[in-house]
Amino acid sequence: MADSWLVLKCSACNICHGRKSTGHLCPHCGQRISDNAQVVDKAVDSTELRMKVVLANTPDNLKELLKSKLSKDSPLVGKEYSSAAGLKVVKDSVNEKGIIHIDIVAEKLAKNGVEIEVEQFMEHIETQGLVIRIESGIWQFLE
89 and 136 share a domain? Predict the structure, then answer.
């Protein structure tokens, strides 16, 4: 059982949380979680566990809507800007002629979960010498 994560439901507060085993205190109300605690689900890693705990604590009438909004490709928490993520977004945004359009950059930033204003992001990329502005909202990628 130690190889998998458990989604446990506290019998006192009815809120689910994740752990690898029982015999601890509920992180929400402090009640002891015993060996006979209700196991709502199991997960193979912490990422899957996080999603299953969120869904387990979501009211039934909203679960399907939440599942449709959250996919394995979209993070639950947005990432801060990093150079590596920025370079990936830029390279993914370049078309076959080496041109980058602002709407494609916005789409790629959202897909990668990077939370930064598109204009601010592209200004930073310009200062790094990776692109040259051709006109408003369009850049040339410099390889």
Answer: yes
Instruction: For residues 80-105, give the mean pLDDT.
Output: 87
pTM of this prediction exceeds 0.85: no
How many angstroms separate the Cα of 74 from the Cα of each of 27, 55, 69, 70? 26, 15, 9, 6
Q: Which domain holds residue 118?
A: 83-141
| Same domain, residue pair 87 and 63 | no
What is the β-pairing status of strands 38-43 and 5-9? antiparallel
Structure tokens at 105: 């950059």
pLDDT of residue 28: 87
Phi/psi class of residue 62: alpha, beta or left (left: φ > 0; alpha: ψ in -120 to 50)? alpha
